[in-house]
Amino acid sequence: MSEQRFNIDVENINAEFCGSSTGYADERVLVSLERAQGFGKLKNLPKRLPVGCRRGGCGICRARILEGNYKRDPMSREYVTLEDEKEGLVLLCAIYPLSDLKVRLEPKCVKNVEANSQSLEI
Amino acid sequence: MALTGVLRPGFIQLRVLDMAASVEYYTKRIGFHVVTKGEDGRVYLKAADEFDHHSLVLRQADTAGLDLYAFKVRKDEDLDSFKKRIEDYGIEVDDVRAGEQPGIGRRISFVIESGHRIELYAQAEMSEPKPLIHNPDVWSVEPHGMRARRMDHALLYGPNIEKVLNFFVKVLDFECAERVDMPDGLLAIWLTAGMKAHDIAFVNHPEPGKFHHVAFELEDWKDVGNAADIITRYNISIDIGPTRHGITRGQTIYFFDPSGNRCEVFAGGYTYYPDHPTRTWDEKEIGRGIFYYERQLNDAFLSVVT
Amino acid sequence: MAMTGVLRPGFIQIRVMDMEAAKEHYIKRIGLHQVMEGDDGRVYLKAADEFDHHSIVLRKADDAGCDLMAFKVLDEETLDGFKKRIEDYGIEVDEVRAGEQPGIGRRISFVITSGHRIELYSNCDQSDPKPGIFNSHIWSVEPHGMRARRFDHALFYGPDIDGVLDFFTKVLDFKLAEKVQMPDGLLGIWLTCGMKAHDIAFVKHPEPGKFHHVSFELENWNDVGRAADIITNFNISIDIGPTRHGITYGQTIYFFDPSGNRNEVFAGGYTYYPDLPTRAWDERDVGKAIFYYERQLNEAFLSVVT
Q1: How confident is the model at residue B1 (pLDDT cuts 50, 70, 90)?
Q2: How many A-B residue pairs are in contact by the CB < 8 A criterion?
Q3: Number of domains into which chain B is organized
Q4: Residues of B numbered 82-121 whose beta carbons fall under 8 angstroms of chain C's beta carbons: which are they?
Q5: Percent of chain B scored above 90 by pLDDT?
Q6: B261 contacts A53? CB cut-off 8 A
Q7: Structure confidence at residue A75 (pLDDT)
Q8: Chain B CB contacts of A120 below 8 Å
């Protein structure tokens, strides 16, 4: 197992700082953020950490890399187009840190999720 | 013939981002078998307890999600009569030639108002492995992985659920076994062509053509627990469970394939007959309808789709 | 309508020699509920997971055995259609007036060539307890005893099994899901009108009209084990099991009611569709067909009937 550890800073879509997690080189960035959330280290999230399929298909954990390097798994082009990718957009569940990272959440279809949520009043 | 028209879900075609990882997942983890690989790269899989040629088709793509969901009908003539009924209803029907998928006869193909492509076919070859029929043992090849016995149903997300309900009931002769009505309208429907509590289900959702999950049937609750062990052991992304649905009563666990397509394995569910009433749920108890033990929905279940 | 004709087993009327002991057995041990007692002393029972008025009728008599087994059909038109087809086949049909059994509409009644009285009806009332249909729970009343979920099927012994097969498939539109073929002819047939592996079964036997067992469905193998505990705890006469059938794949245990009528509780069994082949067994493996783990028949199972 890799012991290479990196610091991952995350901010929400309004650029408010949410918190940091310790990420590992062989660990999906989203999973490290889930761990930080479990320890109560993430604040200022618009709702909660956008966790969906964790395998690059559903687009929920779409985010912008503000600083740092990473490697990537396949991710659905429906949510990250080639142009998006050039701008630094990724799915956090499909990237692994190669350095400290600074990321901003830009979740997919926020409107739809909230439309559904409101109609269900959950 | 006591069962006529649409018999059962036949096969589902899913898009995957990484074919090698997907084949490993559906064969080693879910417990399916590869039947054949097509020249165009599609991979055809089945459960050993299914007779028909295949029930799951994987297609390499740069997005995840559902290409189409196909039902097997009783007779070739049924295809012609359904084609006419679907066209009379006002939905365009395409013909798909026999052999477009190996082992499958001609299909009729159409897009319903929720944006999903649905197909019907009458002819399918059988393939190995399949159940024995002469002095048949309980299984022909030893079950492995999650021990899935069949591709059982799918849940699809899209708009116009009222119209979808009308189409399936009036044109395809399905029955609505269960439904959820919210103050602002119909939220979800569970439809059956036979005696299972559901063969296909829909949840109202603004984006058309979205895919929520494909479900594989297991023998019992103990096998659901075994699947849960496999999910963590092989670092498969978990969604929720083991738990139970109030709707259909299935004992269940949800998780994601390597491309983020949601899968379910489940056991049980009541037996439906066409003289049974439709079971209904409202806003107050919908949490218990979806997750009988947690009694609360989670927003990922309602919003995470491919 | 995807399902037409005969839907399912509706009820079975069983003769018992000690009504109080029989009620205790079927209610407290099997887990059924008493719906009512008729003026003529017949007792009407049901499982809490059944909608229809009753599924078991107990009649006090000075011998044990089965009076009749009745199937529910889709509608009155279907009932009239079957009456004509049965008479055209050459079997006399009696009309039984609505209300002869409480909650049940008019029936047509006839004796098949194995000597068993079979009935069909289309109308019946619902009774409590029954499954909830609005924001419903998994069960309305807490399951007790062996937690039987429904009257599922019966096995009859009698002559002319070939004739019975012809009648059920040609006249009542049943399908032959499974059969045992011995060198001297057909020994057993498992017939279905829907998607269950069997709704009624027959074994060749010289005496006409004999009753082998009535079967109740359980949720899973775990509940079969619980039933085994109950059988010994309450000193119920055991026949065989827990074991599995090669035929139908059911996980099962057999025992006797206080009058010596054989009962089965079982879980599982494959899903049948009318496009699937008939599964067949021959003399070599018939032991495994009946008892998949013991792999040998026992004399009592073949000869002890009421």
Answers
A1: low
A2: 102
A3: 2
A4: none
A5: 95
A6: yes
A7: 95
A8: 182, 187, 283, 286, 297, 302
Residue C289 has pLDDT above 70, yes or no: yes
Q: Quickly count: other Cβ atoms within 10 Å of residue C141's Cβ.
A: 12
Alpha-carbon radius of gyration of chain C: 18
Given a cut of 50, whether residue A115 has pLDDT beyond it is: no
B254: domain range?
Answer: 151-303
Chains B, C: CB contacts within 8 A come to 144
pLDDT digits (tens, 9 = 90+) for C44-86: 999 999 999 999 999 999 999 999 999 999 999 999 999 999 9
Residue from C26, C33, C213, C272 carrying the catalytic annotation: C213
Topology (CATH) of C150-303: 2,3-Dihydroxybiphenyl 1,2-Dioxygenase; domain 1 (3.10.180)
Q: Are residues B158 and B295 in the same domain?
A: yes
B interface with A, Cβ–Cβ < 8 A, is 17-18, 62-65, 182, 184, 187, 205-207, 237, 239, 256-262, 283, 286-287, 296-297, 299-300, 302-306
Q: Which residues of B touch C268 (CB under 8 A)?
A: 219-220
B295 within domain boundaries: yes
Distances (CA, A) of C129 to B100, C16, C239: 51, 24, 30
Fold of C6-121: 2,3-Dihydroxybiphenyl 1,2-Dioxygenase; domain 1 (3.10.180)
- B235-250: per-residue pLDDT in tens? 999 999 999 999 999 9
Catalytic, B153? Answer yes
Q: How far is C19 from chain B (nearest CA, A)?
A: 31
**Predicted-complex ipTM score:** 0.85
Chain B residues in contact with C1 (beta carbon < 8 A):
4-5, 173, 274
- Within chain C, which residue ranges are assigned CATH 3.10.180.10? 6-121, 150-303
Question: Residue B264 catalytic?
Answer: yes
pLDDT band at residue A121 using 50, 70 and 90 as cut-offs: very low
